[in-house]
Amino acid sequence: MLHHRQQSRRFPRVPSEHPVRIRVVGERRPETMTATRVISAGGCMLVSDRSIGFGSLVELHISLDGRLLRADARVAWERRNNGDAHEVGVEFLSITERDRAVLERLVASKLAA
Description:
single chain, alpha+beta, 2 helices
């Protein structure tokens, strides 16, 4: 089933943990650090210790292979895990072609492994 879903997705997703600095656009709260759990060239899933809010616009800085990728994104979904953790799915709205290519290479290498 997962294999079929991966084939039908525009951007295949793979489990991959990378540090992320996240800032919610328009909020005065400071940036927070977290990590991706799943990533693709079109978005990622991360875990947050607080609710970010469905539809929120966020600015992400993802540390990946010695590079810092920057993306403007939108929270596409959010669900609370056991305890206080929130799984947050974000869709990249703006990312450079160079950074998207880095993500595509990462995904391709993990899918091939």
